[in-house]
Write a structure and sequence with these properties.
10 helices; globular
Length: 330
């Protein structure tokens, strides 16, 4: 069995595929208001995504997440999910969304076989939501979450980016919201990939502080992970009184690069070995020019072999990637 092994002994089994860089929000840490999108002709078709997925499975990938942009703005995602579900080798398929499209598509996604979703929600305050996303649609996101829950999705993870001086006063409110609705809450540390270049240490809240704030109100018990879960990006906890999960993804304060098993394919078919990679490999062009699967495999294997030790966020020589988050894939 082939595997994607890098120079540090890490085996890569977790692939994130972006289907679009388009989004119906303009979150300040992800996309500028005047975003210029990738031309449709440069996007991977669904057939090409299936083709690439088959190649990656042959290299040991067994976990897949569909991302964007906002994946649900691209027509036909439920059909893509159904096609991906035919790969028995995939142990897990999930989708990251801003939740708006779930109002009309949750049922179709569930019928297609999807069971896990991640929904981005940074604030429960309408005014702050509009400031952060530059759109007034909080009620639609909340309705999308409710619709997905009624369809049977489990787990439903709520991803929140905590920003000091802006949403830090809602950390406990979001924890309460997740507890009451049986969602798994994940706080993501604010990372230097924001579209508006507002990131700074003064706005960054370390994961430990987030957990301490919640623990002061709702006592938490840390979950100890074994096996494949060692590559999980989140430090996971349970509420002591009801067992629901909450966690933090401490990419900045406590990088988990040593155990990273994730790789990425952008919507225009560029292969990236790290969210913060400053280089990427074009896989779509050789595929469209008729390259056989062995050629594509070798491009992937070579790129993973050269993967960086880590993202260097805390290093003096850190270089911010040219692509913003929406162009990379969340």
């Amino acid at each position: 069995m082939k595997q994607l092994l890098d120079g540090f002994g890490r085996v890569h089994t977790n692939l994130r595929i972006s289907v679009t860089d388009v989004c119906n929000l303009r979150c300040i840490y992800c996309m500028p208001e005047d975003m210029v999108f990738i031309p449709d002709t440069s996007l991977m078709t669904y057939d090409e995504i299936i083709h690439f997925t088959r190649i990656f499975i042959g290299l040991g990938v067994n976990k897949l997440r569909i991302t964007g942009g906002e994946p649900l703005v691209r027509p036909g995602v439920p059909h893509l999910i159904k096609q991906l579900g035919q790969f028995d080798e995939l142990n897990d398929i999930s989708l990251t969304t801003n939740g708006i499209g779930l109002i009309t598509q949750a049922e179709a996604l569930y019928e297609a076989g999807l069971r896990r979703i991640n929904v981005s929600l940074d604030t429960l305050n309408e005014e702050k939501f509009e400031q952060m996303t530059r759109r007034k649609v909080l009620s639609r996101v909340l309705k999308g979450l409710k619709t997905a829950h009624e369809c049977g999705f489990n787990p439903i993870k709520v991803n929140a980016v905590a920003m000091r001086g802006f949403t830090d006063d809602e950390i406990v409110d979001l924890a309460t919201f997740a507890r009451e609705n049986n969602y798994q809450l994940r706080f993501i540390e604010f990372m230097p990939l924001d579209a508006d270049d507002i990131w700074g240490r003064n706005m960054f809240i370390p994961g430990k502080e987030i957990i301490d704030r919640i623990n002061n109100v709702y006592p938490l018990e840390q979950m100890h992970l074994n096996g494949d879960a060692i590559s999980d990006t989140a430090q996971r906890y349970r509420f002591a009184d009801n067992g629901n999960e909450v966690g933090v993804i401490p990419s900045v304060s406590e990088p988990f690069c040593d155990n990273c098993n994730r790789i990425r394919l952008t919507a225009d078919g560029k292969f990236r070995t790290c969210l913060f990679s400053i280089t990427e490999i074009d896989l779509l062009t050789p595929l469209r020019q008729g390259a056989d699967d062995v050629v594509i495999e070798n491009l992937i294997i070579d790129a993973v072999a050269k993967k960086e030790a880590g993202h260097k966020i805390n290093a003096a020589d850190f270089v911010k990637p040219e692509r913003n988050m929406s162009r990379i894939g969340g």
